[in-house]
Amino acid sequence: MNPGAPPALQLRDIHLPAAPGFWPLAPGWWAAIALLVLLLVGVAVLVWRRHQRKRAGRGVLRELAALEAGFRQAPSPDSLARISMLLRQIALAHFPRQTVSPLSGGDWLRFLDASGGRGRFTEGPGRVLSSLPYQRALPANLDVDALMALVHEWVALNLGRTA
Length: 163
What we know:
Helix 4 crosses helix 6. It is built from six helices and no strands. It has helices at residues 27-73, 77-94, 97-100, 105-117, 128-131, 144-158. The longest helix is centred in the first third of the chain and has 47 residues, at 27-73.
């Protein structure tokens, strides 16, 4: 500025305001961050549940393998009854309790067929499971390999189901 210049010529430079800061964020960014956090939490919960189901499934398969090994070593109605109880536990975990819990005998076998047995529990090697609690010895014509293959197939099919 020149002190001797006329007042109309005493101009000042234009000063631009400072650039807006990064912080605090605008409300839209807060909403986007909140949605992203909710999405990440939801995905984490789904992954955790899937991991838990798979871990439980691996535990069931280990238990089934141990029961099968015991059954093949010393076949008895008791060891086969434990396999049948494992099937019931899986069914109770993956199907509505009021549907599964009252079933016994032929109704239980029909349920097993309807949930993946394809008729092999009522008409095939699985029919021994209905009369098992009332026998002192296993039937002589019991096909252990076919029965265990059927049990493994049913367990593998039903481990992925949720109630």
